[in-house]
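Can't paste images in this forum, so I'm doing it all in text. The chain is below; anyone willing to post the predicted structure tokens underneath?
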Amino acid sequence: MLRRHHATVIAGLLLATAAGAAQIDWYSIDGGGAFSSGGGFELNSAIGQPDAGLLSGGSFRLTGGFLAGAPAAPACVGDIDGNGAVDLVDLSTMLAAFGSCDGESAYDPDADLDQSGCVDLTDLATLLAAFGAAC
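Text version of the structure:
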């Protein structure tokens, strides 16, 4: 398993080198690791990870440091406006977009809680199940 991770990192570095502009000026051998992905690339290790800081070149970007790629805590399901509570404002937003699908003027991707492409009964049921909750 560890060999596969190292092979993935080495392959990624070779690909980046072949692409041209990516460059790592200095590094440290750090332990631990995390899984990161974006576009068609994956990074499955921390070996040779740059210390805290941001590296970029061409279309590549690498943030170094202790678990820099760790995902943020999930948002509160149903809190469409991000105010920290599932309340009447969220319900009103949901109802304004209810029945619409991606590409239609009334469609609101934030109200499409399951990201199905349509604001439907599944989204409404999810919001109502969380209604009144504080995040």
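The chain is about 30% helix and 10% strand. The first strand starts at residue 36 and ends at 38.
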